[in-house]
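Key result, reporting period 2: structure in, sequence out.
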């Protein structure tokens, strides 16, 4: 399912291209925080913890719901 970044919620699993072209990673969303022009999505995949800065209208693929 595809949703806008502003519609993400904690507990969902998203699939994003991370680090290099073609490197698709599933991240579990830990927190979603609006921050001015962007939505900061705190997430993790195993031991990798990161914050993705996404535009509110950006489309994100959700592979598992909370």
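The corresponding designed sequence is given below.
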């Amino acid at each position: 399912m595809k949703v806008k970044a502003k519609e993400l919620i904690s507990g969902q699993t998203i699939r994003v291209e991370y680090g290099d072209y073609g490197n698709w990673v599933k991240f579990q969303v830990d927190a979603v925080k609006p921050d001015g022009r962007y939505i900061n999505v705190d997430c993790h995949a195993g031991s990798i913890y990161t914050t993705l800065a996404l535009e509110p209208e950006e489309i994100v693929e959700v592979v598992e719901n909370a």
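The mean pLDDT is 96. The radius of gyration is 11 Å. This case is discussed further under Risks and Mitigation.
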